[in-house]
Design a protein that fits this description.
This protein is α/β, with parallel strands linked by helices. The protein folds into two domains: about 140 residues, Quinone Oxidoreductase, Chain A, domain 1 (Alpha-Beta Complex), CATH 3.90.180; about 150 residues, 3-Layer(aba) Sandwich (Rossmann fold). The strands form two sheets. Strands 1, 2, 3, 4, 5, 12 and 13 form a seven-stranded mixed beta sheet that branches. Helix 3 crosses helix 4 and helix 7 runs antiparallel to helix 8. The longest helix is centred in the middle third of the chain and has 14 residues. Bound molecules: NADP nicotinamide-adenine-dinucleotide phosphate. The site of NADP nicotinamide-adenine-dinucleotide phosphate has 31 residues, from helix 1, helix 3, helix 4, strand 7 and helix 5.
């Protein structure tokens, strides 16, 4: 990524092979996942929250094989198949070699190919952290997930079911069969129906679409329940907990999220915008679920690395069913 901007801000270049420092592993990348955050970063939408040192190698998640380890690395040896959601400030997944702190890496699920494993870390960690940690979903609860057919949604439906919930989701007819096969009991076609007219008394909502959907999610919750969003506007909790931000950013996000928080208060429910955090330990949880047959990856399309521009053009249309991945 050479600058902030449109698709032309990313170009294929030769860069030096990185060397692993203390506590880091060098990974020969076999495949890398694409995420909306990658083009939001490229467009400069997150630059107030995270300044990047451009030019840099972009890319948030990968699968590959450990090529070398730095001093003090204990959990990995050369030849291990691994996957990771890389450090948010360093990125680096869109290259044949990447260096990642070992605490962010995990052994790849044994039952997956590199291409499927590459699309799991970012979306999987997001769904796990939102449902298990923020919503604390419990057996028998009813959970609403907007945008169930995308990268995060396809994993979130399955993780909510694993935690014991009954799931309602929104999808177009193109995604309905998929989300039902993953465990969604109620599927609402967002193009012809408003979910707020069909659902009530839900125990929690995980918002993946933002905008009016986020506001409407407050209306379908029990009093005291909560919406966790990854597509709305960050708030003071995001600033404090996820970003470790100073008073200026915290104040700015408090103002920016005021309308949403007011809407939630009026319905007697909670609101929290979550920025997922990279975690090797949480990746181990996901890998175990995959290997036990409890979590299925959904890969929509795999492009050769050289066609990463086309891969982004496809993702940016916003209709991917599951994940878009590039293969080295
Ligand atoms: N804060 C964080 O840490 C974090 C982490 C991960 C993701 N996110 C955000 O979460 C959002 C979802 O990410 P993703 O990777 O799942 O995106 P994605 O894979 O691009 O999502 C595409 C899917 O969304 C569906 N969709 C589009 N508009 C919809 C609507 N109004 N209602 C229901 N479904 C709709 C599309 O279905 P149809 O084509 O059939 O309409 C498509 O299947 C993005 O905004 C992303 O930036 C944030």
């Amino acid at each position: 990524m050479t600058r902030y901007g449109d698709a032309g801000a990313m170009e294929l270049r030769d860069v030096p092979e990185p060397t692993p420092g203390s506590g880091e592993v060098l990974i020969r990348v076999r495949a890398a996942g694409l995420n909306p955050v990658d083009f939001k970063i490229r467009e400069g939408k997150l630059r107030l929250l995270k300044r990047l040192d451009l030019p840099m190698v972009a890319g948030s998640e990968l699968s590959g094989v450990v090529e070398a380890v730095g001093d003090g690395v204990r959990r990995f040896t050369v030849g291990d198949p691994v996957f990771a959601r890389v450090d948010k400030g360093k990125l680096g997944a869109y290259a044949p070699y990447a260096v990642v702190d070992e605490t962010l890496v995990a052994q790849m699920p044994k039952s997956l190919h590199f291409t499927d494993a590459a699309g799991l870390p970012l979306a999987g960690l997001t769904a796990l952290q939102a449902l298990r940690d923020e919503l604390a979903v419990k057996e028998g609860e009813r959970v609403f997930i907007s945008g169930g057919a995308g990268g995060v949604g396809t994993l979130a439906i399955q993780l909510a079911v694993w935690l014991g919930a009954k799931v309602a989701t929104t999808a177009s007819p193109r995604g309905e069969e998929l989300v039902r096969s993953l465990g969604a009991e109620t599927v609402i076609d967002y193009r012809t129906q408003n979910f707020k007219d069909r659902l009530s008394d839900y125990d929690g909502a995980f918002d993946l679409t933002g905008g009016q959907d986020l506001i409407d999610s407050f209306a379908i919750l029990k009093r005291g329940a909560k919406t966790v969003s990854v597509a709305g506007i960050p708030d003071a909790t995001t600033a404090r907990v996820d970003l470790d931000a100073g008073p200026l950013v915290t104040a700015a996000l408090t103002v920016a999220s005021a309308k949403i928080r007011r809407a939630a208060r009026r319905k007697g429910v909670g609101y929290r915008y979550l920025f997922m955090h990279p975690s090797g330990a949480d990746l181990e949880v996901l890998a175990e679920l995959v290997d036990k047959g409890r979590l299925e990856t959904v890969t929509d399309r795999v492009f050769p690395f050289e066609q990463i521009t086309e891969a982004f053009a496809y993702l940016e249309q916003g209709h991917a069913k599951g994940k878009v991945v590039v293969q080295m």
